[in-house]
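### Sample
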Amino acid sequence: MSDQPTKSRRHFTPQRLNRLLNLWPPMLGAGIRVQEINDDWTRARVKLVLTRINRNQHGTAFGGSIGAMTDAFYALLLMHQLGKDYKVWDQAAQLEYVSPGTGTVYGVFEVPTSVAAQIRERCDAGEKVLHWFEVDLTLADGTVVARARRQVYARKKREAMERDTPEGVGSA
């Protein structure tokens, strides 16, 4: 199978998914805006705009909104790179707050094609893959507000494994 991104599920283009995510109530309500999703599904730029609604008791960004800002982007990028024959889910998250979010918080989520290819290869061999991704969430001046780790689960769908297994060869 090619290392190139495959045609996306539901024919979402990155631009269409970007628009839909920006209108999705959990993102909209938290002040989270997707700035861009690259055409090859390798990168998403996201920001959390500090408003009266998402400030905490100290007047800084609410930690729950910072956490929500990291939700699903790695899984979405990987899902669209792997294609419809693979299951991809967010599995776990870790968040370390480093400094107060006193303004707009930015995050750049990246899933290089080389990482997606390694995950695809392991899935094609029948493995369940758990992969950790890391991102620093920063203010515009580069001050780190939080460090996030997200674990993504990936596995080739059973029906795809059966379809891709040559006749006469047993599968696990």
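The chain has six helices and six strands. This sample (Acyl-coenzyme A thioesterase PaaI-like protein) is used throughout the tutorial notebook.
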